[in-house]
Input
Amino acid sequence: MSENEMKLVVVGAGGRMGQTLIRVIHETPGVTLHAAIEREGSPFLGKDAGDLSGLGPIGVAVTSDPLQAFLNAEGVVDFTAPAASVTFAGLAAQARIVHVIGTTGCSVDDEEKFAAAARHARVVKSGNMSLGVNLLSVLTKQAARALPADGWDIEIVEMHHKHKVDAPSGTALLLGEAAAEGRGIDLASQSVRVRDGHTGPRAGGTIGFATLRGGSVVGDHSVILAGEGELVTLSHSARDRSIFARGAVAAALWARNKKPGQYSMLDVLGLSNQ
Output
């Protein structure tokens, strides 16, 4: 290991994203896997993180103690669950390290705790860590701004694998926020999440969401702008989870020498002013 390599901790190491992160960190110059964390009682505890992720032994055993790992690391990459991410945010703030959060389904209260942690940690949080999706969010904002609300309706359609537990997806909400910013409206009060029964005509100016679940789909998202006699569709299809892992590792490296604060992938990619 080079002295200059950034020491990263992967939490939720036994999950699909955790295993992908371990592989991506192993193959990415400038970073090294410092520790791999799983919850108490996990069957993965004590196993070599490399064996767990299909790499073969790399000499890092999976542990359930994040406190010690965080104190001696430079960053943590976190695609877990909201309650776990809030706990890790507090520990990252204590250690004053980078915390990259790809966890979705977080509440307003959770977001406030992440913001509080960002007073001491460098927090990079996004509903999606991929370059393509973040470019899509910029294009969505521009399209929503350019096309008048009184003639163009916006619908966001997403599909994920059958094991995903939150809906709409964090990416769909990220795209919805981009559309709302483009229109200058509040997404929370102007979004339609469910349609069932006799709904009446579509309310003008709202942003609709449709959620599909099934199979092993990594993540498909489309933003549909529907006008009279024409349709504009902006879409992204994720074929491999490694796109999120590569984005998260790039975010950690980007934040390594930044001041404490809360950042997004748009900041990482230089797209925040678009």
